[in-house]
Design a protein that fits this description.
187 residues, 10 strands, six-stranded mixed β-sheet, 5 helices, 28% strand, two-stranded antiparallel ribbon
């Protein structure tokens, strides 16, 4: 599946280091039902505006908070170009309640939304975005590991996967590239 997903993305222009991998053709997002502080978060939540989704978990010591900080730093810079929602999805529902995930996401930016759900629903969303995750219990119930893809998914206003990018991006290049794409008439 990952080879097919990778082949579906446009190759970057050799003279330009592309920050966002844009899909040549948008892909449908599987039906899913997650929760955010008592509210339903599903496919209809992705309609009508651009959405940037990242996956992680609250006990992540470094990558998740660093990635959320980086996207928070550009969120206000891209909002003038289009209505954009930012969603953090916890893949650790055993420890991360929907309300805790939402509070966590909003620590980085008051407009961010945090969601989670059961493993089957998380997998439906993750699979359609090409995201992998695994929660591995340790025989000592107080410890276990969580692994997940470190990639942001860009969802277009029709609720389809349109692109993806990884943390560590150049903020100025990201803002320029995103603003050009969202104002493009082809989407």
């Amino acid at each position: 599946m990952s080879l097919g997903l990778a082949a579906a993305f446009l190759a970057p222009d050799p003279g330009h280091r592309q920050v966002i991998e844009w899909l040549e053709e948008p892909r449908a997002v599987n039906e899913f039902r997650l929760e955010s502080s008592g509210n339903l978060f599903d496919n209809s939540s992705l309609q009508g505006r651009w959405t940037i989704i990242s996956f992680g978990f609250l006990n992540c010591p470094d990558i998740c908070p660093t990635s959320l900080s980086q996207i928070a730093a550009v969120s206000g810079r891209i909002s003038p170009y289009s209505s954009v929602a930012f969603v953090f999805v916890s893949v650790d529902p055993g420890r991360d309640s929907a309300s805790a995930v939402n509070r966590y996401a909003r620590q980085f930016d008051a407009t961010f939304n945090g969601v989670t759900g059961n493993e089957a629903e998380l997998s439906r969303l993750a699979d359609s975005l090409g995201i992998q995750f695994k929660v591995a219990p340790d025989p000592d119930a107080s410890r276990y590991t969580v692994a997940h893809s470190i990639t942001y998914s860009v969802i277009n206003p029709a609720g389809e996967l349109q692109g993806r990018f990884r943390p560590g991006f150049d903020a100025d290049s990201f803002v320029l590239e995103f603003s050009k794409q969202v104002s493009s008439p082809r989407i």
